[in-house]
Write a structure and sequence with these properties.
Number of domains: 1
Radius of gyration: 24 Å
CATH class: Mainly Alpha
Distance between the termini: 42 Å
Shape: globular
Number of strands: 2
Number of helices: 12
Strand content: under 5%
Strand order of the largest sheet: 1-2
Oligomer: single chain
CATH superfamily: MetI-like
Structural class: mainly alpha
Largest sheet: 2 strands, antiparallel
Length: about 290
C-alpha cells in the first residue's frame, strides 16, 4: 500500500521559520553587508571587499582579546566541569533533600546576567562589599579595579558561582538515570567507589557532559555582560574580551565595517571550536 504524505504539517512549522528568519537570518545578512562595505555617515556606503577581515586578522588588538577569551574559557571549563561532577555525585538521590538541593542549585541560574555583574561589583568593593571589606580586614591587598590578578580572580569566581549549577543539574540528570542494577552488580563484584565512578557513572554521564561542555564553552567564550559591569574591560585591557571589544568598536567608535567583520570572525571561531569539541567527544564516545 502506497503511503500518503500530509504536507499540511509544514504550515505549523512556518511561523517558526519566519521567526528565525527575522531574528537570525536577516540580521546576519545585514552584518555580512556591513562587513564588506565602508560608510562615512548619511547612509552612504562604499565597497571595501575583504579589507576589514584582513585588518582584523592582522590586528594585535584582535589576537590579544582572543587569547584572553581562550584562557578564560579554559580556566572556566577546568573548574566548573570537575566541580559540577563532584557536587552532583554528592547530592542525595532520594528523600526531601532532592528538591531542596535542586532548588538551591537552580537559584543562581535564575538571576539575570546584568544583576549578577552588579551583585559582584558591589560584593567586591573594599568599602561596602562583603568580600572586598573582609579581605582588606584580613590584610589582603584586594582591589579588582586596579589589580589585573584580582580582576581575573573575581570574574572567574563569579562565573563559577553563576554557572556551575548548570553542570551540576545536567550531571545529576545523568546520574539518576542509571538503573540500580548496575550498582547492585558492582556491589556484588566488590567494586571500589573509584571503579563505580569510572566504569558506570562516568560513561553514563558522557552525553550530558558533552552538552555541559559545549554550553559552558560557548557561554564563557561569548561572555559580555558580567565583565562589562564588574570591570568594564579593565584594568587597562586585561579583561577586554572579544565581546567587549566588539561592542566598543561598534557602539563606542561607530566603526560598523570592522565591527561587522569581527563579529563574523567571532561567530566562525565559536562554530569551529564547538564543532571540534563535539567531534572529538562523540568520536571518543563511539570508540568506548
Amino acid at each position: 500500500m502506497e503511503k500518503t504524505w500530509n504536507n499540511k504539517a509544514w504550515f505549523m512549522v512556518l511561523p517558526v521559520l519566519v521567526l528565525v528568519a527575522f531574528s537570525a537570518v536577516i540580521p546576519l545578512m545585514t552584518v555580512v553587508n556591513y562587513s564588506v562595505q565602508d560608510t562615512f555617515g548619511n547612509n552612504a556606503f562604499f565597497w571595501a571587499g575583504t579589507d576589514w577581515f584582513t585588518d582584523t586578522l592582522h590586528s594585535d588588538r584582535f589576537w590579544d582579546a582572543l587569547t584572553r577569551n581562550l584562557i578564560f574559557s579554559g580556566i572556566i571549563l577546568l573548574i566548573e566541569i570537575p566541580l559540577g561532577i563532584v557536587i552532583a555525585l554528592n547530592m542525595p538521590k532520594k528523600g526531601l533533600g532532592v528538591p531542596v538541593c535542586l532548588i538551591l542549585m537552580a537559584l543562581p541560574l535564575l538571576i539575570p546576567w546584568n544583576v549578577v555583574g552588579t551583585i559582584w561589583q558591589v560584593f567586591g568593593r573594599t568599602d561596602i562589599g562583603l568580600l572586598g571589606y573582609s579581605l582588606t580586614a584580613l590584610g589582603v591587598n584586594y582591589n579588582y579595579v586596579n589589580n589585573v590578578f584580582d580582576a581575573w580572580v573575581t570574574l572567574i569566581i563569579m562565573d563559577v558561582w553563576h554557572w556551575t549549577s548548570l553542570v551540576v543539574l545536567l550531571c545529576y540528570a545523568g546520574l539518576v538515570s542509571i538503573p540500580d542494577a548496575y550498582y547492585q552488580a558492582a556491589k556484588i563484584d566488590g567494586a571500589s567507589g573509584w571503579s563505580v565512578f569510572r566504569y558506570i557513572q562516568l560513561p553514563k554521564m558522557k552525553r550530558v557532559l558533552l552538552i555541559a561542555f559545549l554550553l559552558r564553552f560557548m557561554d564563557s567564550f561569548m561572555i559580555y555582560t558580567e565583565p562589562f559591569v564588574v570591570t568594564g574591560g579593565g584594568p587597562g585591557n586585561s579583561t577586554t574580551f572579544l565581546s567587549i571589544d566588539l561592542v566598543k568598536m561598534a557602539v563606542g567608535q561607530f566603526d560598523l565595517g570592522p565591527a561587522a567583520a569581527l563579529s563574523i570572525i567571532y561567530f566562525l571561531i565559536i562554530l569551529l571550536l564547538s564543532w571540534i569539541f563535539y567531534t572529538v567527544m562523540t568520536n571518543s564516545d563511539a570508540e568506548t
